[in-house]
Amino acid sequence: MTDKTALKYTAEHEWIALDGDTATVGITAFAADKLGDIVFVELPAVGAEVSAGVVCGEIESTKSVGELYAPVSGTVTAVNDAAVDDPAVINDDPFGEGWLLTLTVDPAAVAALLDHSAYLELTGGQA
């Protein structure tokens, strides 16, 4: 189980786990719940440059289509092909097997994001 208190978050409901200059990115359980049953995921290509706050992917559910925003600027180093092949894993385990991509980033940019307490405040107590 991922320690949610160690993660950083965005107001667009992405989570970020930082390990050195590598950030693993996913959507929160709050976002997955609001989307409903996720049926399609489109992610950027490995090697792509993404910019903080700019759309870098798409998540479709039975209810709606959501955009994936890059939480910080960086270079995509991996995408979760398992989540692309079986998007339901994002609903089932958004903080684990449902991760979406990894980025090489400036760690200082991640430090500026929301901490767990601030994210809980934003969502009314749900992560």
From TrEMBL:
<dbReference type="InterPro" id="IPR011053">
    <property type="entry name" value="Single_hybrid_motif"/>
</dbReference>
<dbReference type="InterPro" id="IPR002930">
    <property type="entry name" value="GCV_H"/>
</dbReference>
<feature type="domain" description="Lipoyl-binding">
    <location>
        <begin position="22"/>
        <end position="104"/>
    </location>
</feature>
<dbReference type="InterPro" id="IPR033753">
    <property type="entry name" value="GCV_H/Fam206"/>
</dbReference>
<dbReference type="InterPro" id="IPR017453">
    <property type="entry name" value="GCV_H_sub"/>
</dbReference>
<dbReference type="InterPro" id="IPR000089">
    <property type="entry name" value="Biotin_lipoyl"/>
</dbReference>
<keyword id="KW-0450">Lipoyl</keyword>
<comment type="subunit">
    <text>The glycine cleavage system is composed of four proteins: P, T, L and H.</text>
</comment>
<dbReference type="Pfam" id="PF01597">
    <property type="entry name" value="GCV_H"/>
</dbReference>
<comment type="similarity">
    <text>Belongs to the GcvH family.</text>
</comment>
<protein>
    <recommendedName>
        <fullName>Glycine cleavage system H protein</fullName>
    </recommendedName>
</protein>
<comment type="function">
    <text>The glycine cleavage system catalyzes the degradation of glycine. The H protein shuttles the methylamine group of glycine from the P protein to the T protein.</text>
</comment>
<feature type="modified residue" description="N6-lipoyllysine">
    <location>
        <position position="63"/>
    </location>
</feature>
